Amino acid sequence: MAKEITFKEVKDQFHNNEISAEEAIKLLKKINKKHPSEVVQFEIAMLEFNSGKKEKNYEKLLKFRNSKNTHVSSRANIALSRYHIANKNMGQAREYLNDVDNSIFGGELNRQLAVIEKATGNYETSRRRFEDSIKKAKNPKSILGLGLLELKYKHFDEARAYANILKEMNEYNYAYKLLGNIEFKLNNYEEARDNFLQLLGTSIEDEAKLYLGTIYFDMGNNELAMNYFQDLSNSIYKYHAMVRIARIKDFEGFHEEALDDLLNASAHLTDDHQYIDLCKTLSNLGRYEEALSYLEKVHGEEFQESVEKNKVYIDIYKKDFESSLNDLRNSSFAI
């Protein structure tokens, strides 16, 4: 008689990339059917939540946030917080983190708070939170977070220093991810591509494919870019890929198709990149007032130059030259 696989064995096999999330879910459901357990049910919910069906499985996770098992409730609240961070709902994200056990999950708690501070433009507070996270536990994700924080503020040498630390820790996947982001930010597309190619076949290959598609689009290879994006149709990045596919369609003149994809994605994402893309596509269709309405939704400091440019271009498209000159005078860029 074959030996029954255990909960721990399934978790270990999944984390070692020996089985897929789908296979892990099937095995855990079998275990739970024979031996019902809140811990197993929670692990199933987490795997389903992280497998690209966040909206569908959000309610499932909610029921675990008040569990009497501190590990379960804290992990549920951290996952729910991440969901709201991704959707730019920082107030709700903080609320969930209030219920995380700091004595057990202090490192992860500080890391999530650092991400919130980074998203709201608080460099010093974010940096301090990441450093507090590392003091609790030298988690490579926190070191990666510090590198990406430095990169956001164009501190390239500091960002590279964190990539070196990750290499010294043998955390090569995170090192390649950080180096790829650095080279991408510097418009060194070939170097960025080479770093992201190292991540194919790893647990973060879907994120790498999203970057590779973007890189090939920026390099003018729309066919290869499309291949990478279409390969993400069943991943957690499928809506991000849909936005980038729309960008290609818009570039190639298929404005109506691009708009359909962008509006479909907008039901699942609230992203400044996406609002800029919607503005450009609507402008190409002559729907200028709608285009401007999406610019009003853009709040990220790093996108303000793009907002200014698009306002000028819209005024020019409308042949409202007086307004375009006023926008140009008030902007911080030069055409």
Walkthrough of the structure:
By secondary structure, the protein is mostly helical. The chain has helices at 7-15, 21-34, 38-49, 54-62, 70-86, 90-97, 102-119, 123-136, 140-152, 156-168, 172-185, 189-197, 205-218, 222-230, 238-251, 255-266, 272-284, 288-295, 304-317, 321-330. It is globular. It starts with 6 loop residues before the first helix and ends in a 5-residue tail after the last helix. The mean pLDDT is 86.
Using the CA coordinates, give the radius of gyration: 22 Å
Low-confidence sequence ranges: none
Relative helix content = over 70%
Q: How would a textbook summarize the main sheet?
A: none
Task: Please tell me what the overall shape is.
Answer: globular
List how many beta strands DSSP finds. 0
Mean pLDDT: 86
* First-to-last CA distance: 74 Å
Helix run count: 20
Q: Provide the β-strand percentage band.
A: under 5%
Order of helices and strands: HHHHHHHHHHHHHHHHHHHH
- Structure class: mainly alpha
